[in-house]
Amino acid sequence: MLYELQLSAPVSGIDGLERLEQACEDALLAWGVVNPAFLFALHEALVNAFEANCRCGQADEPLSATLRLDKEQLTAEIPDRGPGLPPNWREICLNQTMQDLLWEERGRGILFMQNLCQEIDSGADRTGRHIMILKAGIKKHG
Q1: Residues linked to residue 123 through DSSP beta bridges, in sequence order
Q2: Is the pTM above the cut of 0.85?
Q3: Which residues contact 52 (CB under 8 A, 6 or more apart)?
Q4: What is the tens place of the pLDDT at every residue in 42-51?
């Protein structure tokens, strides 16, 4: 592994979400990685984590993310206090398209992540919190 960085929002709420997104982008740039598609997927995962925390009465809990970079792959892990995705989330994603969800209020985030990353997964971290995992190839610059 070349790099690993654990980032936490310095404050909770939308301001913390925005600051964490910027810290993630800054870290990737410092590593020489430019991947706007991955950053958008990461944004969706962070928004989902924020909303999951709010639904569980944990809106004041600052968000966090772990970024990892090896020679071929970029990984982000985003924990939240929510119950996680339904067991059949992969099947649901396979049977839906953006066209199906275009005018829906919710539900596009996982499809965005799935289409913008090489791989996405959902599970639990060592403390039992739900965790969203995003993986993408790397594009180095400079």
Answers
A1: 131
A2: yes
A3: 80, 81, 82, 83, 130
A4: 999 999 999 9
